[in-house]
Amino acid sequence: MVVAGVGRGGSVAPMTKVLYPGSFDPIHNGHVELIETASHLFDEVVVATMRNLQKGEPLFDLDEREQMIRESLSHLDNIEVVSFAKLVVDVAADIGADFIIKGLRSTIDFESEISQAQINLNVSGVHTLFLPSASANSAIASKYIRDIARFGGDVSSMVPAAVAKRLHERYGS
User: Fold this and answer.
1) Number of folded domains that form the chain
2) Marked catalytic residue, from 105, 127, 168, 170
């Protein structure tokens, strides 16, 4: 892995840019934790939200998700937020990503993500790096957030304030 900074012999290493793709419907504290980790490891993190047709009708449209992501990550200065409607590997090429990053909560995540990572590598030559979650946030999933909020539950401990506000506006919980 290439890391920015001064290398041996005084040479300057190139900047490292990673792509973190996902539906982020909505972004939650597990996502934020992973992005914070990535922002410390890499020079630039591009968070790309997309519509995942396999997940059914989204709760928030892409513009709303982009805005919530920006608000939730405003404390980080090396983050860019985009939305896309194409292959992840094409987005990675468009932005010049050195790597795609994915979070792992469990072995089930690994099993589903490894195949996608191998296909992405075959198609584009871009490697995927996995960042494991080791905190209480590892149990959080956007689908649970949507269901709990829809039925009036309190999700404020699982999502950034910007997301809690929008869920409250949407469901009144």
Assistant:
1) 1
2) 105
The answer to whether position 90 is within a domain reads yes
Known active-site residue 40? no
* Per-residue H/E/C for 12-32: EECCCEEEEEECCCCCCHHHH
Is 142 one of the catalytic residues?
Answer: yes
Per-residue pLDDT of 77-98, as tens digits, reads 999 999 998 999 999 999 999 9
Which residue, chain included where needed, has tokens 């995927």?
A: 128
Domain limits for position 99? 5-138
pLDDT, tens digit (0-9, with 9 covering 90-100), for 118-140: 999 999 999 999 998 877 888 88
**CATH number for the domain harbouring residue 94:** 3.40.50.620
Is-above-0.90 flag for pTM?
no
List the catalytic residue out of 17, 23, 28, 31: 31
Query: In this structure, are strands 17-22 and 99-104 parallel, antiparallel, or unpaired?
Result: parallel
Q: Classify residue 140 by its DSSP letter.
A: -
Catalytic residue among 23, 72, 133, 142: 142
Q: Please say if 55 is a catalytic residue.
A: yes
Asked if residue 70 belongs to a domain, the reply is yes
